[in-house]
Amino acid sequence: MSTHFDLIERRRSGKIVTKRKPLSIEVKKSLYMLIFALLGIIVVLSIVFLLNTSQSSQKGYVLKQQELRKEALMLQNHELVNKIIEAMTYQKVEDNPIIKGMTKPENLQYIKLPKQEENPVE
Predict the structure, then answer these.
(1) SS in 3 state form for 17-84?
(2) Of 11, 14, 101, 106, which one has the greatest count of Cβ atoms within 10 A?
(3) Could you tell me if residue 6 is inside a domain?
(4) Residue 65 maps to a domain
(5) For 88-100, what is the mean pLDDT?
(6) Residue 33 maps to a domain
(7) pTM of the full predicted structure?
């Protein structure tokens, strides 16, 4: 049996002797630490996965909204182009009161251009 004096003498020499634990306790402790570490990794990876998928779905929603807006603007553009074409038709121009109020020329002369040769000059 070691006495109190013996324990003090061991501490002075810089060597503290602790009671050794059985190997089964060390194995259980290591197993619990391993399980805790693996569960922590699983939880962290699950959170990262959920955040990533939610961001992807948000981006998909925004992209779909932008596509719908683009289609609506393209339809509006098509309608406006059709209105412009309709406004520029010959019949509409002729029926315009401003055009009808214009005076017609008395002497019409048309200039005829000479016909060009069918064979191009080399």
Answers:
(1) CCCCCCHHHHHHHHHHHHHHHHHHHHHHHHHHHHHHHHHHHHHHHHHHHHHHHHHHHHHHHHHHHHHH
(2) 11
(3) no
(4) yes
(5) 80
(6) yes
(7) 0.41
pLDDT in tens, 9-60: 555 556 666 677 788 888 999 999 999 999 999 999 999 999 888 888 888 8
Residue owning tokens 């060009």: 116
| 115 within some domain | no
Assigned token pair, 94: 């002729």
Q: Residue for token digits 């996965």? A: 49
Task: Give the C-alpha separation, 41 to 5, whole Å.
Answer: 49
Domain count, the chain: 1
Close Cβ partners of 86 (under 8 Å, ≥ 6 residues apart) = 92
Report the alpha-carbon distance of residue 52 to residue 62 in Å, rounded: 16
19 Ramachandran zone, left/alpha/beta (phi>0; psi -120 to 50): beta
